[in-house]
Amino acid sequence: MVSNKLVILGGGESGVGAAILGQSKGYDVFLSDGGKIQEKYRQELVDRNISFEDEQHTQSLILDAALVVKSPGIPDTSPLVVALAERNIPIVSEIEFASRYTDAKLVAITGSNGKTTTTLLTYHLFKQAGYNVGLAGNIGESFAWQVAEKNFDYYILEISSFQLDNIDSFRPDVAVLLNITPDHLDRYGYSFQNYTDSKFNIVRNQKAEDHFIYFEDSEVIAKELADRIIPSQKLAVSLTHAVAHGMRLNGDELISNYKNSTFTQNYPALPIKGPHNAVNAMAAILAAQVAGIENSKIAEALLTFENAPHRLEKVAEIAGVTYINDSKATNVDSVFYALGSFSEPIVLIAGGVDKGNDYSQIEELVKAKVKGLVILSTKHEKLKDYFEEIVPRIHISQDVNDAVRQAQQWAVSGDIVLLSPACASFDLFRNYEDRGNKFKEAVGNLIQ
């Protein structure tokens, strides 16, 4: 008898969603999580009579699987995954599994930075145009869960490299690649090429009728395109030059050239700022145009977009000083774009858990724009040593309220106080959201 046992590794949003979809498709489902499953997910499994375990992985219940759906957080090098691979048991991501059971058109968005903003903006453009569209992937509700219980015509998917590592037939109708900069290299044998290959999996199964939207100014992407055969229709995005098919920034204008139809949008009028967000906006606009959304509806929807928190989020203006929460900037590349988003003098709050950062990328911008650096971290030496000859004033703190008060003392009307850490948050905070929320609270305390 052929086994139809589906094993899910990981009992979070994506894992439980995959279990629900698997059950609906007739699989014998077993879910296993090495940690403790949250109560809301545990209750879903109990209510649906899906077998599961947590705080352990019982190999005898896992290694007889016909198919395994693995959480993106579990590396391929973990002993359990290695044992499954040795038995030639197929291992896929939730993204791959869900895509097998939907006829909806898929817009998949990846990149080292900007994925969430671009995904949310693309979803907003589709939703405002009246499309029957779902939001999933690395954001929102589980893709598999939605495929099991909803009936969308389109899905806008934020896709991480970890999710792309375990695809087989996943084929987006529109693939978006925003940028590739060093990140998560510990998962890729400290090989940037391995990480790059993972990102390019997003176009691996595309065909001639599909579309590939990419940032043409990226040297990494340009080099890969020269060495790869990609059959899909290519739409380039550029901040510096005209493109034959795609979209460019020309002065203050975003100008698209798609199917001989020109669309122009004044960029400063949009609610998102900075050159990186111009790239994000152009990618979203092109994805909407490919889906047939009218230019007038795109233009209207762009003006009503609200970005996710912690991404160049304006918190307050106090005595003429603007406070910006960019806690999501957990790598140097993100800080580069953040600094480039402002012409005003900046008091920068940075620091946290350094992931092997190379600060030379932002040295010139810091020298030109940053009047003071507040290092918010338990380990300040690397940042201090790098910037003490570059920045006029440095203050070291392990308390966000103290950090914000010091920034306020240095700032004058017309300045920006910018939290853009370049580092992970785990030395002083639970995560980047916690760091951003504590920063917003500290800024609020200045008003009282």
Report on the architecture of this protein.
This protein has 3 domains: 88 residues, NAD(P)-binding Rossmann-like Domain (Rossmann fold); 204 residues, 3-Layer(aba) Sandwich (UDP-N-acetylmuramoyl-L-alanine:D-glutamate ligase), CATH 3.40.1190; 135 residues, Mur ligase, C-terminal domain (Protein-Tyrosine Phosphatase, Chain A, Alpha-Beta Complex), CATH 3.90.190. The protein has a 9-stranded mixed sheet with strand order 7-8-6-9-10-11-12-13-14, with helices on one face. A 6-stranded mixed sheet has the order 15-16-20-17-18-19, sandwiched between helices. Strands 3-2-1-4-5 form a 5-stranded parallel sheet. The protein is of the alpha/beta class and 448 residues long. It contains 17 helices and 20 strands. GO terms for molecular function: ATP binding; UDP-N-acetylmuramoylalanine-D-glutamate ligase activity.
Question: How is the main sheet built?
Answer: 9 strands, mixed
Q: Architecture of the largest domain, CATH level 2?
A: 3-Layer(aba) Sandwich
CATH class of the largest domain: Alpha Beta
Q: Biggest sheet: strands side by side, in what order?
A: 7-8-6-9-10-11-12-13-14
Q: CATH superfamily assignment of the largest domain?
A: Mur-like, catalytic domain
What amount of the residues lies in strands? 15-25%
Determine the fraction of residues in helical runs and give it as a percent range: 25-40%
State the distance separating the first and last CA atoms.
Answer: 71 Å
Counting structural domains, the number is 3
**Might you state the CATH topology name of the largest domain?**
UDP-N-acetylmuramoyl-L-alanine:D-glutamate ligase
Function: Cell wall formation. Catalyzes the addition of glutamate to the nucleotide precursor UDP-N-acetylmuramoyl-L-alanine (UMA).
Keywords: ATP-binding, Cell cycle, Cell division, Cell shape, Cell wall biogenesis/degradation, Cytoplasm, Ligase, Nucleotide-binding, Peptidoglycan synthesis
Organism: Dyadobacter luteus
Domain Mur ligase C-terminal: 310-423
